[in-house]
Design brief:
ABC transporter transmembrane region fold; 8 helices; 81% helix; 250 residues; mainly alpha; membrane
Length: 250
């Protein structure tokens, strides 16, 4: 991305604000280096934990395994809307961040001009307005996370209610009796397994959201499509400069 940016002509820098470039090489690069690699490791660990807990749960309480596909379908149903929404909100958040960076760059570079024209207050108001817009987008992200968290918690509670009532069903003879240790294992591991599925879906959605930063860097790596800037060979371009009644008075 850096090589592609440095190889751009001067007119490219005129059409791309400095704050936008600064945002992509700060926020997006940090996301690609830290967040994406970390989330991929967490997803791999969640898969291993899910396999281990499923084996233990199959030995302790095979009936609980029948609820895992139902819980997975319910979690994925809400996660589908969550992923489609959080991606677009993340794009808006990154765009708002670029605006904040651009306002800061313009205020620092043009501080002499701003003070000369006594426009310190309007510049500060514009910067605060950009920060306010960024905070609103951040509030939307937090609200969406709470929305998906509530629905996933309700699905997890439904599975927890079944595993908690499982000893009661054994007491009334609806299921074969087991030892108290296996019953405790089934309750604990069923709740943890649902939590692992929930965390896996959230991490995968978060990874898909963070890939927006890689898309933005890839755009700078390949550069803009300059085919539209080139004029066709058949198009003749000519210009004429006229100076009617030109005179100089001393």
């Amino acid at each position: 991305a850096l090589q592609g940016t440095l190889s751009q002509p001067a007119r490219w820098w005129d059409g791309n604000p400095t704050g936008r470039v600064l945002n992509r090489f700060s926020e997006d690069v940090e996301t690609m280096d830290n967040a994406v690699t970390y989330i991929m490791g967490v997803i791999f660990g969640a898969v291993l934990y899910f396999v281990g807990h499923s084996v233990v749960l199959a030995v302790a309480n095979p009936f609980s395994l029948a609820l895992l596909p139902v819980a997975t379908i319910g979690l994925e149903y809400y996660a589908r809307y969550y992923r489609a929404t959080i991606r677009e909100v993340q794009r808006i958040w990154l765009t708002s961040m670029s605006t904040v960076y651009q306002d800061m760059v313009e205020a620092v570079v043009g501080q002499v001009t701003v003070r000369a024209f006594a426009n310190v207050r309007p510049v500060m108001c514009r910067s605060i307005e950009g920060l306010d817009r960024l905070q609103r987008v951040g509030f939307c992200k937090e609200t969406i996370n709470l929305w998906i968290g509530l629905r996933m918690s309700l699905i997890g509670y439904m599975v927890g209610v079944y595993t908690t009532l499982y000893p009661v069903f054994q007491y009334y003879g609806l299921f074969s009796k087991q030892s108290a240790a296996l019953v405790g294992f089934s309750i604990q591991y069923s709740l943890e397994t649902v939590g692992i599925i929930r965390q896996f879906i959230l991490n995968f959605s978060d990874l898909e959201m963070q890939l927006v930063s890689i898309e933005r860097l890839e755009e700078y790596a390949h550069g803009p499509d300059s085919s539209s800037d080139n004029h066709p060979q058949s198009l003749e371009i000519s210009g004429v400069l006229q100076r009617p009644a030109y005179s100089v008075c001393l």
